[in-house]
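step: validate -> pass
step: tokenize input -> pass
step: predict -> running
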Amino acid sequence: MAEQSRTDLCIIGAGALGIALAQHARRLGARVVLVDRGPPEAGDGPQHAMRMAALQASASRAHAVRQAVQFGMAGLDPKVSMKNVQERAAILADELAPLASAEHLAASGIEVVSGAARFADPQTLIVGDRQIRPRAVVIATGADCKVPPVPGLDQIDYFTPETILGNSRKLTHLLVVGGDSDALCLAQAFARLGSQVTLVPQGPILPEHDPEAVAILLSILRQEGVVVEEGANVSQFQPRTQGTGVVVEANNGAPHNLDVSHVLIANGRHVNLDTLSPQAARLRRGPDGHYAVGPHGETGNRRIRVVGAAAGVAPFHTALLHGRAVVELLLAGRTRQSLQFSPLVVMTDPPIAQIGRNLLPARAKARGQRLLRASMAENEQVRAQGAVPGLAKVALAPAGQVLSAAFIGSGASDLASVMAFAMERDIPLAALSRLTVVRPSLLASLVQLADEAADDETVPRWTQRFAHLARKLSFTRR
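step: predict -> pass
step: emit ->
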């Protein structure tokens, strides 16, 4: 068995995350081996994000046609061809395939090793007939769809967030089981593409986001025709010759029946590293089911770090920031990327974004903290584009620094990025009132909150004295 030597970093998992991290490590000058385990990494295929974005773009166009009457044009019910929609998405994804090919990666200096991988001991990884002993290992594998233990589910065919992107048929009545980001994005997309959609969350909906922002998003989905059975659970699936029978228990425990044509399971994900022989590498799951024991993917083995699903970090953009920080720490011993202020974003339309776990509890006011709010629906740019409900909420420390923030509305992801930058640089919210914004602009909502924060600040005594002296001197000149 040949041994791979003089390798700085070995990345396990040739999905979108693993490829991006290998390219980042190569830019830092490291010698990199990328392990392609064969089948696409679950939930992390290199072209998955493009197919999802293309599907949502088609759905957005269909929705815009229906809403055209708001802009002085005839509103029509578009004739949607799912076959054409999915073919377009596949073509766009295929155009990215060469960038993720082994040849392209090799040309950039990344060695790709293919085959089943497993740890032989804490320092050695075996891939096929090769033995790799790198300075450090990053596990960037995907995660399988979490299937709820509902009676009858094993007797029916169902979609996952990956397989539904290959569907080319119109779905008459789609039942979405789950309340995570994938569930909400796909429920909205298929409703806009003409399907009847019912969403049963099977637990809390986006529990990591501000409840008020989530309530606004659910209201928008309902207005677009999605039936959201908040607090409900599917208790049984009933296979039939045509379609599927579903028993749903409402929030109050009362059951009712649904007849659906198709089922999508989007109930979160779980990672399974058993094929890697994690015990041989001294890897153990924590109480939360993930393998990370520290904020930067640390494990029980100082040579091995986990990122993405194995570390409980999602969605992709958050996992990418986390992974880059981990790679920089392994290769350079430090990172300039702060993980504390990375926004969580759900790319529905409008998107919803959150920075920080919780906005202010009721007792926070006693400590001098404040909660500022602005209606995104009153933003000039939003009104010009077609007003939809929206909200910006920012929690401030007594000195004016941002503690947490939540956004829902057009441009919410961009506003969250600006806010994350301010939080990382410890910039008080009031300082953003001096931000030059060309009107109309989505950033005007952020400036509005900054103006409110500035108005609440106490003017220093020396500033008051200077202003008083200036007034007296001005009066004397007259």
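step: describe -> The chain has a mean pLDDT of 89.
step: cleanup -> pass
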